[in-house]
Each structure stands twice: as C-alpha cells, then as structure tokens.
Write a structure and sequence with these properties.
Layout (H helix, E strand, L loop, with lengths): L1 H8 L19 H16 L10 H24 L5 H26 L2 H6 L1 H21 L9 H16 L6 H18 L6 H11 L5 H17 L8 H19 L46 E3 L5 E3 H9 L18 E2 L1 H13 L14 H4 L4 H22 L2 H14 L4 H9 L2 H8 L5 H15 L2 H9 L3 H11 L3 H14 L3 H9 L3 H11 L2 H15 L5 H6 L2 H8 L6 H11 L3 H8 L4 H11 L2 H18 L1 H8 L4 H11 L2 H25 L35
Antiparallel strand pairs: 1-2, 1-3
Helix pairs in contact: 1-6, 2-3, 2-4, 3-7, 4-6, 6-7, 8-15, 10-11, 11-15, 15-16, 15-17, 16-19, 18-19, 19-22, 21-22, 22-25, 24-25, 24-27, 25-28, 27-28, 28-31, 29-31, 30-31, 31-32, 31-34, 32-34, 33-34
Length: about 700
C-alpha cells in the first residue's frame, strides 16, 4: 500500500494519526458510512486552497474523491444492509481517503522548494493512490449495493478512468526543479548567479516575495536535514547547498530591514537546525572521540608510546613544550613517534556523517574513501555561504542597528557548522565588527554577537584572531559580567572555555579583570547550563599552574567546592580542585573550606565513575600538599576507609590507583599518630603499589573528555 512509501519518504512535520493505518474495525455499517463521509468532506476542503505545485495531480485526486462522496451520501440515506465484501472494501477505502488527505495536506504545508525537489517522488505517491482506487473499485460489489443507475455509471466511469491514468509528472514543475539545480551548479563552478534571474525565479515563478516566506523556506529545508536518515533524495549535502542558495537570496532580494529582529532567540522554536540551542540540544560527543587535552572532537587521532590516543595537533604541541610524559596517565614516554589511529578515525568519520557534522581530516592524510568523496554540492554551499557572509559583513559595517542585529544573527547561524564557514567569516573581517556589537544596548544584538564569536572560536585559527583583536577579550568578559540576557552571559562563559583550550591564553583570561570572579558567580548562581559553561572554563583555567593564586583570590575555589553537590557539574569541579590542591596555597585554601572534604567524600559515595576518580585524586593531592594536619583530618573523615576499599574493587583503573595511594598516605599518618594518640582508623589495605607521585601537572586528573564546545 502507499502508506509505507508516504510516511517513510515525505518527512512530515508531525506524526500522522493512527487512523491513517488502522481500519475502523468496530464501527457499525451506519457509523462506517458516516465516518467515510466525514473524512471525504474534509479532503474536499483542499479544493478551495490550490497548491503551488502538483496542481493537476491534486485536482485529479479531489475529483475522484468527490465521486465517492456521492456514493457515501447515497449509502447513508438508503439505510440498506451492506454485504460483508462491500464493508471490507469500504474499510480499505477509508484508509485510502485518509492517506489521500494526508498527502494533500503535506503538499499544502510543505515549502515550495521542497515540493520542487520532491516533484517526481510526490507524483509517484499520487499515482500509487490512483492505482489503489482502481483496485478497490475492481472488487467493490456495485450490483449488491442497490445503487441508482446514475451513481452506478459515475462509479464505473471512475473505475475506467483510474485504470487508464498513468504517472503524471508536471513538466513545468520539473523544469523549475532543473533550473534550481542550475543555480547550484553555478555556485559549484565558483560563479555567482545573475541577480535578475534569481529574482525572477524566486519571486515571480515560486512566489517567494518577502523575507518571512524565504525564512520559512530555509527552516523547512533545515527540518528535512534534521529528519534525513540517508534514504531520501536529495542528500544532506545537496540540501545544505540549497539552504545556502536560499539564504543568499534572502538577503540579496529582500534586504535586512524587514526581518523580525526584536524577538531574537525568544521566537517560538521549530525543529530545524536554526533553533537547536545548546540549552536543550547538546549533542554529546562520545568521550572516546574527544582529545583528552583539547576536549574537542579528534580530527587526526594518533597513538603515543603509552597506548593513549590524542589529537595529533594537541599532543604535538604538548611535546614541543618540553613535556616527556603522557598527559593522561603521567607515564614517561619511551619515544615520541605518533602512530595514526585509523580505526578510530573511521569511526569518528562515520559518527559525524550520521549526525550531519562535517568531518575535516588533515590534508596530508590519506583518509578513507567515504571521507575523500565529498558530495558535489559542498563547494556550491561554501561559495554561496561566502557570498552571503560578505553581504552580512557589509551590513555589520555600514548598516542600521536593525540590519546589524540581523547580520550578527545570520553570522552566528553560518558559523554553527563547517570549518570553511568559520574560516572565511573571520577572514572577511567579522571579528572586529562583532566585537563592537558586544557593547550594544540591544539585548538581541549583544546575544547574537557573543554567540557568533563563540561559534567562530571553535576553529583553532580563530582563537588567535579573537585574542589578538584589541579589546575583544575585555568585551567578552564585560558581557559575562553585565550581559543583558542570561543566554548572553552563559555564551560569554562558553567562549572563555573555548579560548582557554589554548595554554598560552589561560593566564591572559585569568588576568582579565572580573573574568574569574564572574565565572565563579555563574557557577554559584547560574542555571544548570550556565553552571556547566562556568565549571568547564574554570577547569581549563585550573590546568595552568600560575593561575592558582588568582583562582583563590577570586572566590573560584569556594564556588568549586559548592558545586560538588550539584549534579552535572560536580565531576568537573572535583577535577579542577584536584589541580588546585597540587600547590600548597591551593591545598590551604581548599582545606579552609568547611565543606571541601565532606563534599569530596560525598562524591566518592554518590558520584559518577569519573567523579569518584576526580574526588579521590583531589583528596590524595590535598593530603600530599596540605601536610600532616590536613592528612589527619582527611583520614579521620567518616566512612572514608570503606569508600576507599569500595573504590579498590569497583573503581576505574585510575581511581583504584589513587585510592590505594590515599590509603597508604592515611595508613602512614595513622601509624605516626598512634604512639602519641593511641588510636587509629585502620587503613590496612592490600592495594596497588604503583602509586608514586610521578605524573605531570594534569596527569592525575580525569579530564572530562565528553564535554565539547557548544555550537549555537
């Protein structure tokens, strides 16, 4: 039946009713005929709302159903008893009419561009329904229904017509579809289509005559990208090309002033890519796909001598800075050779393809075939997006306040996906102009500009552009401190997290007035999303040894201790504390926090596996750096011994190692205290002996590799 094809291919906005699949089994004859009349009359309402495309197929289907309405009215009024074969046919007819209604509704609700792209497929669905009508009429027992001669002749004529009808694909619609592809081909060749031709096509032939309709077209296509499961044409890459083309036309043909900019991110969200904001739609990258150093998705995973995998760029920089140990395990490197992890790279590539994320392996590699064979529309989308970005930059520079707000929002959306987009947006001068907009009194303009900078910062080269732009870091911190909206402040924190992935910038960010204080405040009082942004930024800043004193002065340590009891951020808070207490002043500051030890022990009891790992690591470093009094305080904490014993058997490999080390530290402290105090806690463990403190600064801390920079 046609239903399977319709619902697998049409990608509707909302789920169809069960009535589309289930025949009315328990209805009486009278109720069945009445139900048929109702659904048929609902379908007839589409005759008053002509579709922009599929006109002939729609009219033909409606005329056929109109004949059935006459039949249903007669059966309802006659009151005759129906034979079982007729009832079976009427139930099948009910399903057919319901699916016909869904198809017509789909055509009326879909975007014009989508109907063009699906012209042949949708025509096929109309033809399938026509064939089903023919089949049902062939078996419908007309002689047993007692029809009048006039009605019977109409039904027989309908049967003959349905039998004769062939698949019809409107050549005018198909010509428009080919013209749409030709515009994409021009972009593919690096050319910009003629403005007059684009205007004639979009405005005159498609009827897209204002920015609002054009925006709806873009959102609908993006919706199809979200829903695409790889079994529908055109492919996702082609759809991205058409989105880029339509976005270019939106600003070329309709300018900037007629867009609703006042509502900003408060507009009612839809299912498209445009409105996938990070508060609700975090796409969690599998932790094994993230580099433990940069916390970002690995593009070129390599294996070092200890067997750990890192992104080539990150581990190479680590080694160039003079480190001779593994950042994750602390083991000394036997050599510095980097072995490509091709199996993992293939898995990352497949995951990116499945989630519509562009995967850009380094140019000097021989990537697998599925990575090399980029879709033909990729260049077209890049060229179209570049042309759009240039127009947006012009408005950002010379436009009115409203135009600047629209331009910032569109640059934010363009920078959401694709390394190329982020690269050329920065290259054409967006960052200085966005920096100026950070101080805008317009909340929407400020929010979009800081989020655009956040999205641009994901590309490593743009991090340096942002940090080198005079006053940009200060302006980002100002938004974090005094931003007009909660989302602007949270996105400023996320921007600092992104920038702090570069080691050299951690000290600069910490030295910026109010930066760490505001992050600490957001961690204490922000929303859950804000807390996550703040704690990840503070974690990154904690990995720089020279930032410890500043973290203490700013109140970050207090905020991190308080976050130990907050689900969702406790794991990273414990990791940051484990880094801070490596220094004596850090250990003293944490020890002075009344809830620090109890909070870390609470994490050992209730936290995630990595949270427990970070908590026991923090307690171990606290004892090592804090001295005898601190160790005694930790050792005598209630339930610590049993929790350590539990970790020795059930914890991660590193948690077991840290637990064994902490147990020995407590055992030595207890032994030293016994002659003087006469009692002990009893840390008699048979544990892992590989517990010497021989790792690098960040080596003993579980880096939260599942966290990635959000794209807004």
């Amino acid at each position: 039946m046609a239903s399977a094809a319709i619902f697998s291919s049409l990608r509707r906005r909302r789920s169809p009713s069960l009535e589309a699949f289930l025949a009315p089994v328990h209805l009486s004859e009278v109720a069945l005929v009445q139900a048929l009349g109702i659904v048929a009359n609902e379908l007839m309402s589409f005759s008053h709302h002509p579709h922009p495309f599929q006109k002939r197929n729609s009219r033909s289907l409606i005329r056929k159903i109109d004949v059935f309405v006459i039949l249903f009215d007669y059966l309802r009024d006659s009151g005759r008893s129906l034979p079982s074969s007729a009832i079976l046919c009427l139930k099948e007819l009910y399903l057919l009419i319901y699916r016909s209604k869904i198809l017509l509704d789909y055509c009326s609700q879909s975007s014009r561009l989508w109907l063009l792209l699906q012209n042949s497929s949708i025509s096929g669905h109309f033809h399938d329904l026509n064939q089903e009508i023919s089949t049902i009429l062939d078996v419908l027992p007309l002689k047993e229904l007692g029809l009048t001669q006039d009605i019977r002749e109409q039904i027989e004529l309908l049967s003959k017509q349905a039998r004769r009808d062939k698949l019809f694909i409107d050549q005018h619609d198909d010509e428009l579809r080919r013209r749409l592809y030709s515009f994409l081909d021009e972009f593919e060749q690096g050319k910009i289509p003629d403005t007059a031709e684009l205007q004639s096509f979009f405005m005159d032939r498609l009827g897209i005559r204002d920015a609002k309709i054009c925006r709806a077209e873009i959102e609908f296509l993006e919706e199809q990208i979200c829903n695409n499961e790889g079994d529908v044409e055109p492919t996702v890459s082609l759809l991205n090309g058409f989105v880029a083309l339509t976005r270019y036309c939106r600003f070329l043909l309709f300018g900037f002033e007629d867009e609703e900019v006042g509502s900003g991110s408060q507009k009612k969200t839809r299912g498209g890519l445009v409105y996938q904001e990070i508060g609700d739609t975090f796409l969690t990258i599998p932790k094994d796909f993230c580099c433990p150093i940069s916390l970002d998705l690995m593009r070129d995973p390599v294996i070092i001598s200890t067997g750990q995998t890192y992104d080539r760029a990150s581990i190479s920089q680590w080694m160039e800075e003079g480190h001779c140990s593994c950042p994750k395990t602390g083991q000394m490197l036997s050599h510095t050779r980097l072995v490509p992890n091709r199996a993992l790279r293939n898995l990352i590539s497949q995951w990116c393809t499945a989630h519509g994320i562009r995967f850009d392996p380094p140019e000097n590699l021989d990537p697998p075939a599925e990575v090399v064979a980029m879709p033909t529309s990729t260049k077209a989308a890049i060229v179209a997006n570049r042309a759009t970005a240039e127009r947006l930059i012009q408005q950002l520079s010379n436009g009115s306040q409203g135009a600047k707000t629209v331009a910032a929002r569109e640059l934010r959306l363009l920078a959401k996906t694709g390394k190329e987009n982020r690269t050329f947006i920065a290259e054409v001068g967006a960052i200085p102009l966005l920096r100026q907009l950070l101080s805008s009194p317009d909340p929407v303009a400020q929010e979009n500009s800081v989020t655009a900078i956040l999205n641009l910062s994901i590309h490593d080269k743009n991090k340096s552009r942002i940090m080198e732009e005079e006053g940009c870091l200060k302006s980002i911190v100002e938004v974090l401190r005094f931003g007009h909206t909660t989302e602007a402040r949270e996105n400023a924190a996320a921007t600092l997290f992104s920038l702090s992935a570069v080691h050299d910038y951690k000290k600069r960010i910490t030295s910026e007035e109010g930066a760490v204080e505001s992050l600490a405040g957001l961690l204490r009082e922000g929303s859950l999303r804000g807390k996550k942004d703040a704690v990840t930024a503070l974690f990154n800043l904690s990995t720089h040894s020279e930032n410890c004193e500043r973290m203490i002065e700013s109140g970050a340590v207090t905020a991190l201790v308080g976050a130990l009891g907050t689900e969702g951020v406790a794991e990273e808070a414990a990791g940051a504390l484990a880094l801070i207490v490596r220094q004596p002043i850090g250990a003293e500051a944490v020890e002075n926090e009344e809830l620090a030890v109890s909070g870390l022990i609470g994490m050992m009891r209730r936290g995630t596996p990595k949270g427990k790992e970070n908590a026991v690591a923090a307690l171990l470093e606290l004892c090592r750096s804090g001295g005898t009094a601190t160790t005694q305080r930790v050792a005598r904490a209630p339930a610590l011994a049993s929790l350590l014993q539990s970790l020795l058997f059930t914890g991660t490999k590193r948690a077991r190692r840290k637990a064994a080390s902490l147990a020995r530290v407590c055992q030595r402290c207890e032994a030293a205290a016994l002659p003087m105090e006469g009692y002990g806690v009893g840390y008699a463990f048979v544990g892992n002996s590989a517990s010497d403190r021989s790792s690098n600064f960040a080596g003993d801390v579980s880096v939260p590799v599942s966290i990635s920079v959000p794209v807004l």
